[in-house]
Amino acid sequence: MERTQIARIYADQETFGGKEVTVCGWARTIRDMKTFGFIELNDGSCFKNLQVVMEAEGLENFKDIARQNVGAALVVTGTVVLTPEAKQPLEVKAASIQVEGPSSPDYPLQKKRHSVEFLRTIQHLRPRTNLFSAAFRVRSAAAYAIHNFFQERGFVYVHTPIITASDCEGAGEMFRVTTLNPNDPPRTAEGVVDCAQDFFGKAASLTVSGQLNAENFAMAFGDVYTFGPTFRAEKSNTQRHAAEFWMIEPEMAFCDLAGDMDVAEAMIKSVITEVMAKCPDEMEFFNSFVDKGLKERLEHVASSAFGRVSYTEAIEILEKSGQKFEYPVSWGCDLQTEHERYLTEQHFKKPVFVTDYPKEIKAFYMRANDDGKTVAAADCLVPGIGEIIGGSQREERLDLLEARIRELGMDPADYWWYLDLRRYGSCKHAGFGLGFERLVMYLTGISNIRDVLPHPRTVGSADF
Amino acid sequence: MERTQIARIYADQETFGGKEVTVCGWARTIRDMKTFGFIELNDGSCFKNLQVVMEAEGLENFKDIARQNVGAALVVTGTVVLTPEAKQPLEVKAASIQVEGPSSPDYPLQKKRHSVEFLRTIQHLRPRTNLFSAAFRVRSAAAYAIHNFFQERGFVYVHTPIITASDCEGAGEMFRVTTLNPNDPPRTAEGVVDCAQDFFGKAASLTVSGQLNAENFAMAFGDVYTFGPTFRAEKSNTQRHAAEFWMIEPEMAFCDLAGDMDVAEAMIKSVITEVMAKCPDEMEFFNSFVDKGLKERLEHVASSAFGRVSYTEAIEILEKSGQKFEYPVSWGCDLQTEHERYLTEQHFKKPVFVTDYPKEIKAFYMRANDDGKTVAAADCLVPGIGEIIGGSQREERLDLLEARIRELGMDPADYWWYLDLRRYGSCKHAGFGLGFERLVMYLTGISNIRDVLPHPRTVGSADF
Question: Which residue on chain B is closest to A437 by alpha carbon?
Fold first, then answer.
């Protein structure tokens, strides 16, 4: 008989009530009451378990089933019984139960609370816990919500390259990618490693951003987005940094900074709304056990306008705040997480875009404002996280872009194709980068990036 | 006035007819007839251009517009006029046209046919051609169709890691990932590079497959899929191989090989149907200019059952075929592309699954069949491409899997977590890998993988 996902039964109780089904999953608990018993079965299709009722009389292998260990894989065929009076809306009365794979008494996920630190050492099993089952189902729903948002608006999804031979992206330290023998690489006459003999004929690295490539496509398709892995070889061992993480980078032609913020705000609201609708049990769980105010905060965010404040105004707010910050505040300084969180958590009490940063602390490709001091950047700060989005209008004027590249001591020749976009049908355009893990942290209340990545890669750690 | 995507106007002609719109795009052609003129404007939101009509009398900058070069970025405000009698269903009568960014006479994409080889040297501009505009729009639609297929069926999307410290995936040569100084890396007392001092505390590489990690999640969520980049450091300079490509890897618990093939077949049909519905103009273009029989073939594939044949039977078919193959055929040999294409193109004339291969030519994790010689593998071959999917039922029996690992001279300790899945609630499960670029080639008729990747990475080439 065909396997039915438990999620389908809960979603369509009317249809399934009284029907026979086969469900396959893993026992979360097994209670043996001698003449009858209960199994809480979870198949991962939804957060909820399914209660399976078995009776000794009707089930010839009752004793064998009743002594199975937690974690056993079971195939249950039985009748769906609606139980509107009970705690759970339905249960399955088992006609037959087969042990597909037993578990053992040393199964690490016994029914007790485990620390997230311990669970990180058994990343292959932690998706079977309530916390990680919910986290990764929300992660999946959020990823799909992002695709839905952009595809419905006619954006083209572009897979920008992961391996890059340009170190021009300028967003952070990079991992090198090579096939040369590390112990004895070929060397040039000068004695340095001869990258010309490497796989790509030159030095190559892992991308830190797909933006420059995405601009190539925005100048053809108008509206595009990337959604792929990006890398930072920074040895920051914090709760918010991973060496490998996923990023979404929309890029829009004929769009200015205000339009950029409109899209970013609409996207975040759309993802919140879709995830809350699709994962109500998971969100209830996070709200109860991880972050008490989560649902209320997300509902508030989804329904109210984000703040917008210039960097210059933000600095004034911080200076007047009377707060003691570890890093002092003055015009020209980069905003630290403590500043960002003060602005979004204490002052605005909602997500806020900070715009028009000093050009010295922002990337070369951002559009110069007329004041000569600032660029058309917009970072989105959210409570509990700080920066979740970094965006800008891009410099579309060839002369200004080239001058800025030279001013920073870089070589325009390295940017020939990027500059070409300004030679042939240039237009105002803008985009942003959303760190996907930070979004999942924001949606779940989970405070460590290691717990929203299936198998996190951080400095000193690449297990599993 | 707000920008309207040209695709929206074509999609909803009734609503837009007679209305004023602002469209923004790039001029494909500009024809100056002295008192009036025509612009073919493309904004990348759809394959079709929009015809803009301008009259010298109504447009004060008519002369300036008329002398713009191909590729100029224009902002056009005007009235949508339905033209049911004309070649195109509608046009826009311009009230104002602004040059957002001019082009120049040396713009490489003049209105003539360019070779794909030349266009690969201007990858930043080639998305503005008909061929690549269509290819990357189909690529985006196909990616979304895959997400739709799996999400609608309750599969959880898992981002398996890109950087891996295990070289246990066994699917091909790997790129190393490092932050050590290549010229003077730290060395151990024995004089070899000291990987313990590298970023992750050990040697790391780019993944060749997310499967083993995906199994961790299938054992919790039942049905999961990955969709991410994978890498091969093989110096194959062919039309079908790239060093970096995207792969989809579904993994299903409580599923056998027949179920695996059912999902693979349904997925391919679903993607074909969705892409043909969403990209009719693009498919028409490919059918006319790239591959004459494309649409008919795809429609046939979407509506008929795939073939299924055992490897042993396939070998018999090949032996009896009377064909001269470069590589001789006998039981035990790996199927070469020429064999695969004979089977799917000449013999079956449709996609066909070849199942139950000799265990010697397949990976260690595939489930042993009772005959002691073969494993429960299933590769899907399609006309024009050859292998597009490689799948198998996985060995879920701890003793057999451990024995096979030892038999191949590998160390079970390296697979501790993978083996754990067989210790705690093991169950039959199966999955497959779909090479996304091969799917896009199959959907478009494009014969070189370099022309379906936004910025291809192949041996000796990582430009842009």
Answer: B159
Residues of B in contact with A72 (CB under 8 A): 425
Mutating which of B75, B120, B156 best tests the A interface, going by the most A Cβ atoms within 10 A? B156
Quick one: pLDDT at residue A270? Answer: 98
Interface contact flag, A201 B139, Cβ < 8 Å: no
Looking at the predicted complex, does its ipTM rise above 0.95? Answer: yes
DSSP strand pairing (B429-435 vs B244-253) = antiparallel
Q: Is the pLDDT of residue A58 over 90?
A: no
Q: Chain A partners of B191 at a C-beta cutoff of 8 Å? A: 183
Query: Looking at chain B, how many residues does it have?
Result: 464
Spatial separation of the C-alpha atoms in residues B380 and B393, rounded to whole Å? 14
* pLDDT tens, position by position, A171-185: 678 999 999 999 999
E strand or H helix at A54: strand A50-55
Look up residue A131 and give its two tokens: 């916390």
Residue B226 has pLDDT above 80, yes or no: yes
The rounded distance, in Å, linking the Cα atoms of A457 and A450 is: 8
Interface probe with B: pick from A124, A136, A178, A418, most Cβ of B within 10 Å: A124
> How far B312 CA lies from chain A's nearest CA (Å)?
29
Edge-first strand listing for the sheet containing B223-231? B156-157, B223-231, B244-253, B429-435, B386-393, B374-382, B352-358, B307-310
Instruction: Please determine, for residue A281, whether its predicted confidence score (pLDDT) is greater than 80.
Output: yes
- By C-alpha distance, the chain B residue nearest A107 is B424
Give the pLDDT confidence score for residue A171 in this predicted structure. Answer: 60
CB contact under 8 A, A24 and B253: yes
Banded model confidence at residue B171, pLDDT cuts 50, 70, 90:
low
Main-chain phi, psi angles of A404, to 5 degrees: -65, -40
In 3D, which of A423, A187, A225 has the Cα closest to residue B140?
A225
pLDDT score of B112: 80
Q: What is the pTM of this model?
A: 0.97
Between helices A280-289 and A294-303, what is the axis angle to 10°? 120
Residue A169 confidence (pLDDT): 56
- Which of A227, A34, A190, A207 minimizes the C-alpha distance to B144? A227
